[in-house]
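Narrative summary of target 7.
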Amino acid sequence: MPVPALVGLTGRLRIDIGSEVASMIEISDGAVAVKPGDGEADAVAICDSAETAAALRRGHLNPIVAILQGRLSLQGDPAFAIKVMLGLRTMRPDARG
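Modeled conformation, tokenized:
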């Protein structure tokens, strides 16, 4: 089921925690799939800790705030990464996992 805020968006966002790859988020016209693994990505979000990654995932930490606090850095296409992270925040809490 597509995430309404991400409809029209396609690409891959890799999430790293420090130097370790945590997951790959694949977006295909708003449909979201989260998979383990490394690989080519349009953008990479590098979190300073597992706690930061969890707070972002749950929607308890805004990615812009995390960047300003030095808890998150982006590589590749930062606009895509921000769109994905903010779009995922619009999901119902029970669907976020």
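Strands lie at 10-17, 20-28, 31-35, 43-47, 72-76.
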